[in-house]
């Protein structure tokens, strides 16, 4: 028979699943304007972790997949009214994050500048009006700096197509920079293609493709077990268990869609918008339903109360609000995204989801406390024991989640330049993996109390005959619960 303990564990397992997605590998520039940064004008062209093409950086003839950053049809456009002079160079600067100190400099220990000043030019360390840089101590050919200038009355200057070979694993940054005060309203168009040895998937996202493949298989195994039990006892299952079946089905679809999303991304370098949207939507529906089911179980639905009564509309309203807030956040973060959201923009979208999640948690534990009191008052010992285990499992899940969130904050605050990008995939993967250990703890209990419709045959899992004898008191308690359902 389908066990209540297994059902409750699946609820706690599925509730805390979440997905995080990163940058794209084809960066397009559609008229981005240069912005003033210090004494320079800058457009950020992209940042990605890239694995080396060759195991040995000095053996550039080794056989293997190519890693590169390719510049395709990069052009700079200036307004016609300012196209009456030859300009200084507009430069593309590619550097590995460990070499960030090689960009820029200062004269006599003064303020650091990106563009070469008259004082620095007098010292002979750079040419006035160009980007300041010096060779890396590890690889003298880096950073890569090259550019183009406007001649005469040209309105468009096109950078020659170029590929920068990546021979060292690292986090690479691209900036377009110019130092000419006369180049007003300058814009950049075109695209750059960033490729790893195994495909176009950014390095920090590459392990997630295999991870989602593994999770798809895990959900299939879970689905086979659940559906076999569901088919075996289909006459006895409750509507609540139909909801659990839906959550498992959505989980299978979500994991499969994320895998295909990453596989297509890796093959073409462009996020497939349709697949991403469906993956986001299935995941959001799954998380919403999982939270609602846990809340319903915490209220004692199907155990100490037959309906939710007046609480039904409130539960639906909270679920719908959570779905909308989560869907907006996930769509903005994932569909067609090339760069991560700014801190303020992400906070604006994350805050409502966090508040609603906190409200779910508060309501769940408040309801669990009331349900435990009812079970104890009615001396329903077996159900009380299972609900206590369920409460403990949820408490542990919440504590672990909060602890991991604190670790995320620590990780990100100490990795300002994304130098730990090779380990970043562990953060989203953890939310799926950490609950597996809890499954073993639940399976140790051999209780067979069911969360199904009662059959005509009495079951030893329910109260014994002496406990069930006060019929009138029990009826009064049931009537009280019904009144409570209507008024809550």
From TrEMBL:
The chain crosses the membrane at residues 211-228, 240-260, 311-329, 349-370, 390-410. The keyword Transcription regulation does not apply. It is found in: Membrane. Residues 446-488 are annotated as: Disordered. The keyword Oxidoreductase does not apply. Keywords: Membrane, Receptor, Signal, Transmembrane, Transmembrane helix. Residues 1-24 form the signal peptide. It comes from the Eukaryota. GO terms for cellular component: membrane. Residues 207-432 form the GOST seven transmembrane domain. InterPro entries: GOST_TM, GPR107/GPR108-like. It is a multi-pass membrane protein. Pfam families: GOST_TM (PF06814). Its main location: membrane. This is Lung seven transmembrane receptor family protein isoform 2. It comes from Theobroma cacao.
């Amino acid at each position: 028979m389908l066990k209540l303990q297994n059902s409750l564990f699946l609820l706690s397992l599925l509730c805390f699943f979440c997905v995080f997605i990163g940058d794209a590998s084809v960066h397009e520039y559609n008229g981005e304007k240069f912005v003033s940064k210090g004494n320079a004008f800058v457009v950020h062209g992209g940042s990605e972790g890239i694995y080396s093409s060759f195991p040995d950086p000095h053996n550039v003839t080794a056989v293997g997949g190519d890693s590169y950053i390719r510049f395709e049809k990069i052009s700079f456009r200036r307004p016609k009214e300012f196209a009456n002079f030859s300009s200084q160079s507009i430069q593309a600067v590619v550097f590995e994050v460990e070499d960030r100190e090689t960009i820029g400099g200062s004269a006599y220990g003064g303020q650091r500048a990106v563009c070469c000043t008259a004082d620095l030019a007098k010292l002979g360390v750079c040419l006035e009006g160009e980007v300041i840089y010096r060779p890396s101590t590890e690889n003298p050919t880096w950073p890569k700096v090259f550019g183009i200038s406007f001649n005469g009355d040209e309105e468009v200057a096109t950078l020659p197509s170029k590929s920068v070979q990546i021979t060292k694993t690292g986090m690479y940054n691209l900036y377009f920079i110019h130092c000419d005060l006369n180049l007003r309203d300058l814009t950049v168009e075109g695209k750059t293609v960033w490729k790893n040895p195994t495909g176009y998937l950014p390095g920090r996202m590459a392990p997630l493709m295999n991870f989602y493949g593994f999770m798809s298989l895990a959900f299939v195994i879970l689905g086979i077990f659940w559906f076999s039990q569901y088919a075996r006892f289909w006459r006895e299952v409750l509507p609540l268990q139909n909801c659990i079946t839906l959550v498992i089905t959505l989980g299978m679809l979500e994991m499969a869609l994320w895998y295909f999303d990453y596989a297509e991304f890796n093959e073409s370098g462009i996020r497939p918008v349709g697949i991403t949207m469906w993956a986001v939507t299935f995941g959001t529906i799954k998380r919403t339903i999982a939270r609602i089911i846990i809340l319903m179980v915490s209220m004692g639905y199907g155990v100490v109360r037959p309906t939710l009564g007046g609480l039904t509309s409130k539960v639906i309203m909270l679920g719908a609000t959570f779905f909308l807030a989560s869907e907006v956040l996930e769509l903005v973060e994932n569909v067609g995204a090339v760069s991560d959201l700014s801190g303020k923009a992400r906070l604006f979208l994350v805050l409502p989801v966090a508040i609603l999640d906190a409200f779910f948690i508060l309501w769940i534990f408040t309801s669990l406390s009331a349900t435990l009191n009812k079970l104890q008052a009615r001396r329903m010992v077996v159900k009380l024991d299972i609900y206590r285990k369920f409460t403990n499992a949820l408490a542990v899940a919440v504590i672990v989640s909060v602890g991991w969130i604190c670790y995320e904050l620590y990780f990100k605050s100490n990795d300002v330049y994304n130098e730990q990008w090779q380990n970043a995939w562990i953060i989203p993967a953890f939310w799926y993996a950490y609950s597996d250990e809890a499954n073993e703890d639940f399976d140790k209990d051999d209780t067979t109390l069911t969360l199904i419709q009662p059959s005509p045959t009495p079951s030893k899992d329910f109260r014994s005959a002496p406990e069930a004898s006060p019929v009138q008191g029990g009826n009064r308690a049931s009537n009280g619960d019904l009144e409570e359902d209507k008024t809550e």
